[in-house]
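Section 3.1: Structural characterization of target chains.
Under the original work plan, the team committed to producing a structural model for every single-chain target entering the pipeline before any wet-lab resources were allocated. The record below documents one such target. The sequence was received from the expression subgroup and is listed exactly as submitted; it comprises 160 residues.
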Amino acid sequence: MCCDGTLFAYVPVTDEEARRLRHRLTILPATAKVELRFEQRCAALGPRGCDVYDERPQTCSRFKCKLLRRLEAGEVVFQDALDRVAQIVAVVDRLDQSLPAGKSFYFRKALLPEVGERVPKDVAPEVWLDLKVLDILMRRELREPADEPAEVGNSGRPAG
């Protein structure tokens, strides 16, 4: 989910990583507010995983979601971790059917109103409920507060 655009909008890269990966990824230019980065869904994400695994950016190689860190610490067993990921994927898949076509899930989800306490008039109740569930699951299972992207226009840099 970190590579498919579910968790993050962008992945920051160094100048050297940008040069090395330019042939595989569309590197977006740096601005005064935002560093060099590429947009998620990662173009190097293939059917069997990362196609540039040995040369992937440091941000990617260092990132471990909360659930993986808990698994490595022995706080959760492997099957429970798989079940939790499957639960999140099921919600994302349902939402994917309801969101406007376009870029990655992250960007498409950002087009919807904020997930507040009341269902917005222009959003079906089941979509709103899935957004609420996804928000809870991602905070509980995948993200630490430091992993939260500040805004879609930001890098969405995972803590590393």
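The beta strands are 10-12, 27-28, 37-39, 45-46, 49-50.
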